[in-house]
Each structure stands twice: as C-alpha cells, then as structure tokens.
Design a protein that fits this description.
WalR-like; DNA-binding response regulator; DNA binding; DNA-binding; 221 residues; phosphoprotein
C-alpha cells in the first residue's frame, strides 16, 4: 500500500448505485470505507463510532439538509474532514456548505482520478474545489471581510514563517505549492499550519483563510 490504507472514509449519498460506485472506487484506491449510508441522520448517528477521517457527503439528502448533516458529524467527530460531492454547483449551496464546516466541494461531474485525489488532499487539510468554486469562496470571504474588518483583540504572535505560510494559505495556494515556493517539505508546511491553527484557536484551514482575509493578509504589499 502507499500509506492510504489507514485513511477511513464514510460515504453519504441517497442514490444506492452512486453510493456503491463511490465506495467501490475508494476501496480499489486503497482507502478504508468504514460506512456507506443513504440518510443524513444515520451518518450523524454513527460518525462518532466509525471515526471517519474524511466524509464524502452529498448535499441533497431526503431527510436532513446537508448543512445540518455537516454540523452534526463535526459535533461528534470534530477531526473529520467533509468533502461535498454534489450535483449542484450553485453559488449559495457551495457557500452554505463551507460556512457549515465543509473542507471542500466537488460537483459530481468530476473525473474518478480527480475525486480520489480530492479525498487524499481533503484528508491533508487542503480545501479542494471544482475549478471556479475556490475563487467564489475566497471572494465571499473577502466581501464579508470588507464589511466587518476590524483589528479586534490583539492577535496571538505568529513567527515570520507562520505568517508567510498564512499569507499564501489566504490566497488559496495549496500546501504542495507553498512547499515549492518556500523550499520546504510538505510536512513542514502542514506543521506550520497546525501550529497556527493552535495559536489562533481555529479548527480548519477554511477558518484560517477567513481569519487571514479579515486581517488583509491576502493582499499584496
């Protein structure tokens, strides 16, 4: 195996053929599918016991809104990363999912290899979006920041390197690209991000992007 066997994935989709196909693709790629369910309430109920590292979640479920499922899963399994896999690419659906706690968002037209790579990147904390949607999310964060920007309480002190990494994170640069730009290992970049999350008492890279944009760290100069 290539190290992915330990990655536990739960699939939540109400279409049996699609759900089974996604689970099969994941298993064939070396991921451990710990559950494949069709209802949001069931996913929320079992998340704490099956402990998925990544949840592949359909936005449109018959029993609960996708945003409620995200919040329910994260309440019982806060370390899980949520990757939305939806037929909808509507702006509001994407923003609602991210604000609820989703790490990434792919539309179902994504190719198999693109999807499998997205699961791996999601597990690493990278926000993964169908092309065009990442700019939408960053744009919304910037819009909100322009309305509410304020210094607020004194921010915890970050090292020069942590601030440098944070600036690139705020611009939507991936961990791999940050590592290449700063001549660091991928693991070192992840460590800087984790240290920064801890200092700022934030929980995800999406929170980190929002924090950085609110303070203008995404701006050049």
């Amino acid at each position: 195996m290539d190290g992915r066997a330990a990655l536990r994935v739960m699939v939540v989709d109400d279409h049996p053929m699609w759900r089974d196909g996604v689970a099969r693709d994941l298993a064939e790629a070396g991921y451990e599918v710990v559950a494949a369910v069709g209802e949001g309430a069931q996913a929320v109920r079992i998340a704490g016991s099956v402990r998925p590292g990544v949840v592949v979640l359909d936005l449109q479920l018959p029993d609960l809104p996708g945003t409620q499922v995200i919040q329910g899963i994260l309440a019982s399994c806060p370390d899980a990363r949520i990757l939305m896999l939806s037929a909808s690419g509507e702006q509001q659906d994407v923003l609602d999912a991210v604000k609820a706690g989703a790490t990434g968002y792919l539309v179902k037209s994504a190719a198999r290899e693109e999807f499998l790579a997205a699961v791996r990147r999601t597990a690493e904390g990278d926000p993964v979006f169908t092309p065009g949607l990442a700019g939408l999310v960053l744009g919304e964060f910037r819009r909100l920041a322009s309305v509410t920007r304020a210094e607020g309480p004194e921010a915890p002190r970050l090292t020069e390197r942590e601030t440098e990494v944070l600036r690139l994170v705020a611009k939507g640069v991936t961990y791999k690209e940050i590592a290449e730009r700063l001549v660091l290992s991928h693991r070192t970049v992840q460590n800087h991000v984790q240290n920064t999350l801890g200092k700022l008492q934030l929980h995800s890279r999406v929170d980190l992007v929002r924090y950085a944009i609110e303070r203008g760290l995404d701006e050049d100069g």
